[in-house]
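Question (not urgent): is this output format expected?
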Amino acid sequence: MGLDLIPLGKPKLGYEEEHARLFEALKEAAFFDIPSPPFFVRLKQRVEVLLGRRVRSDVSTGRLADGPILLRQLEDISVSPYDTLCCPRAGIDPVADPWLRSAYDESNAKREGKSFEQFRQDIHGEYVLALAPPSPGLPHYASGPGQYVEGYAFRGKALTLEGIEDILGLELYNKAWMHLSPQELVEYSDELEEAALRHAQEHDISRDVMALEAGDDCSHEEEQLLILLSLARWCRYWGENGHPVWSDY
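Got this back:
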């Protein structure tokens, strides 16, 4: 499966403390949640198979809870990442109407004989990520359409490019496998940028690495830095907008 970094919802106004508490409880609910690369990930998965995903007591009620229940509780008091990205919604926002017609023309629903009106009703209210404005919160390094994660998730596989772990050092590299609060995301963004700039200076990379953008013609070393800086911008965007990030592996 690999590593995916997934923004969770940010707290609705007035629910900040409850949101933070549930996020911490959700981390506790992730049995044997070891922030380490593949060997420990496989160990965690084996333990979960043996013990199941039933977890420790919920910190507020003392009742046995599990991750899905805590996640639903968190979602009930959260603003969706889609809203932060200003994604229009099918059938609600007029800007999505042309997309809706195009999506229908290319859909299995049309080929199966469903009417446009049926199709519209089926996806009414769904967010249209393709119509979101450009944002650091929409990573170039994503899983792509049809995957189990949303398009705003950062595909951590990019971090396995040869040499990146050496640039970061083990502790900072492993941090990508941790579930991070908004403040921790901003701090991680700073750490990633500092590591990238330090590496550029130490290796006499003359190009302005802070100006690197996805799609640029890059050397291997520049691509390493582009991945780190892309992740830094992504972490800063979600952290400054109040969203925690869940590392799924």
